[in-house]
Amino acid sequence: MHLPALPALAATLVLGLGVLPATAAEEVEHYAAASSETLAEAMENLAAYNAKVEAVMARDDLGVQDMEEVHEYTYTMEQAVARIASEVEKIAVVLERVHLSSEGDNPHALRGATEVYLEMTAPLTK
Fold first, then answer.
1. Cβ contacts of 126 within 8 Å, gap of 6 or more
2. pLDDT tens digit sequence for 48-88
3. 116 near 85, Cβ under 8 Å?
4. Which sequence spans correspond to the domains of the chain?
5. What number of CA atoms fall less than 13 Å from residue 91's CA on the CB side?
6. Burial (CB count <10 Å: 0-12, 13-18, 19+), residue 73
7. Structure pTM?
8. Do 110 and 102 meet the contact criterion of CB atoms below 8 Å apart?
């Protein structure tokens, strides 16, 4: 199975957020989003808010209040996905350093790049 390159995936996630539907004629209430300042926070928020959305979707009948509840959650989810996409772009750069270092003859460079890479990806692999 071929997976897209990490930078392409990250760009798709970030750019995809810009095409969310809304028109000037629509009156949309905006909600405060939970902070996703770090990759770890973003991953925690995404997991927590996905669970909240799943709980709403498990209800037998969805009313206007249920839909508004999901709408409110999406503000945090969008920020989390944007942070994840941004961090994945950075991770891809460091992974390339690991890749290139592994082809070279400098174990110190490989250890350094790998240490940074593993630290950066830790929140993704919990």
1. 43
2. 999 999 999 999 999 999 999 999 999 999 999 999 999 99
3. no
4. 38-124
5. 22
6. buried
7. 0.74
8. yes
